[in-house]
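Dear support,

I submitted the protein below through the web form. The confirmation email said the job was done, but the results page showed an empty box. After a refresh the structure appeared. I'm attaching both so you can tell me whether what I see now is the final result or a partial one.
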Amino acid sequence: KKKIKQLEDDLLFRLSNSQGNLLDDTELIDVLAVTKQTAQDVSDKLANASETNKKINEACEEYRPVAHRATLIYFLIAEFSVVNCMYQTSLAQFNELYELSIDRSEKANMPSKRIANIIDYMTYEIYLYIQRGLFERHKILFALMLTNKVLVSAGKVKPTDVDLLLKGGGALDITSVRKKPKEWIPDAVWLNIVALSNMDTFRDIPDSVFRNDGLWRQWYDQEAPEMAKVPDYEDRLSKFERMCVVKTFREDR
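What the results page shows now:
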């Protein structure tokens, strides 16, 4: 563009200072021809550059899920310093892990496969790296928080469902909710059941406990209820939903 502007200025200067018949000014005709050819060359190069820039932007957008997952993990790590002030990871340190993940993850010809490989490798490797610096009692907590964030980000779990998992019925009052059907159910567990009924999958769980209290009590009394079949819901539970129902009845598990 600078070259075209320079040629245009030169052409205008010659036109304004030309004397006599313009067709007899050979220098002016030469400048005009050079200007025309240069303008065409520059126009072609700009078109090619625009197309190349478009392809680069498309490639960047295609790899945006990788950046999104990296952002999700980094801010989780930054937030985890609230658990213990010693849990500090600098952005520079994280960037090294991010770049290593791109270099070491399995290569693939298909961009979609390559992106999936980077995301899987990066998530697992950074998870292992952070776990090595955590106290034993905090390792499961970090794993749970990372899993929940990934599931919410992917749209597989609602943020409200994660809140129900973490908070249960702690905000409810036993005197202001539906009366519990059987005395073997502790008040805290019944409040959790009422709260759990706000999840789409468990809308009718209070009624289920009322109808089949024998099966539910048998399941409740299991040493490891997470390994047993959940009454009425066994065939339609995701792993997250199973975790919710186990925590609802048996927070010790």
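Response: this is the final, complete result; the empty box was a page-load delay. The chain has a mean pLDDT of 87.
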